[in-house]
Amino acid sequence: MRKWLRAVWRVLRIPYRLIRWLVRTIAGGIRNAIREIYEFFTYEEEDTPLGDAVASAVANPMGLLDHLVALRRHIMRAAFVMIITTIISFTFVGQTMDFLAKPLPGGIESMRSIEMTESVGTVMWVALLLGFAMAFPYLALELWMFVAPGLSRRMRAWGLLSIPIAMIFLLGGMAFVYFLMLPVTLKFLKSFMDIQTTPRPSSYFRFVTSLMFYIGLAFEFPLVIYLLAKIGLVRARMLASQWRLAVVIIAIVAAVITPTVDPINMSIVMAPMIALYFLGIILAYIARRDRDPKEETLGDRLKKRFLG
How many CA atoms lie less than 13 Å away from 270 in the CB half-sphere? Predict the structure, then answer.
């Protein structure tokens, strides 16, 4: 009788023991993850001079193998996530194409396909770009995880914080193209020389997505300037003194990016880029405001190494 009751008691305790094991496993995993994250952000990499690091890499090229293996893992994970997001994007690629075609008079119904596979190729192209946009934060995270072990504690934190900020700047650039630039540009192109234009899906969506991509990257400029100033590669005073040259370069870039040759659309592209340049000067000043002037930065080391 005792054996039977003991066996019944063991059976009744199976759910409790399973739950207890599951709770302990999850709690242990959380503790280990918190400890690893704490050690990752508090560990300070030994500050090796640039010349010594290069000499060590040349003398022992096999030491780079670990970095290549780590890079392969990051690339594989990033590729896997992008495949997943691209597959997910097919579920609402139709709504995305309708949204991108709204600035066009008549919307997507006004387009005409002249090739049998044109519509299929356009859908694949939009789905791929949409999957990339969805995976962008994770791709940036994988890049940060690869370079973070060689950075200082402060730069690791700033690099991690820059990922959501970069996403905000990218979305801001895309919104600028969609809401401000496209209506003016499409109106000009549709009425140019009074020639009736019937857009093709492949040309229209490649035109729109390319424009949003390049302008979105241009909106990342202040963040890039801030990070470069943080490590000492640029100075706010240097950027301010070269503003005339910067305006000329921005004009050239705007002429390349702008799909039309009229000064109105080119000015629409130039105005925010010039504003972003001066915003970058302000951020560069903020990045160096609390630094000790005598502190040697990565930029100073590179100058000493290559410029003497």
Answer: 17
Q: What percent of the chain has pLDDT over 90?
A: 6
d(CA 99, CA 93): 10
Confidence of residue 54 (pLDDT cuts 50, 70, 90): very low
174's tokens:
């895309």
Structure tokens at 198: 């019937």
Dump pLDDT digits (tens) for 72-106.
888 898 899 999 999 999 998 989 999 998 888 78
The pair phi, psi for residue 301, each rounded to 5°, is -65, -40
Dihedral sign from CA coordinates of 248, 252, 258, 262: positive
Q: Give the N- to C-terminal CA distance of the chain in Å, as an integer.
A: 91
User: Tokens at residue 105, please?
Assistant: 């008079």
Picking from 283, 298, 182, the residue whose alpha carbon sits closest to that of residue 226 is: 283
Nearest-10 Cα torsion for 183, 188, 194, 195: -80
Instruction: List pLDDT tens digits, range 165-178.
Output: 888 888 888 898 88
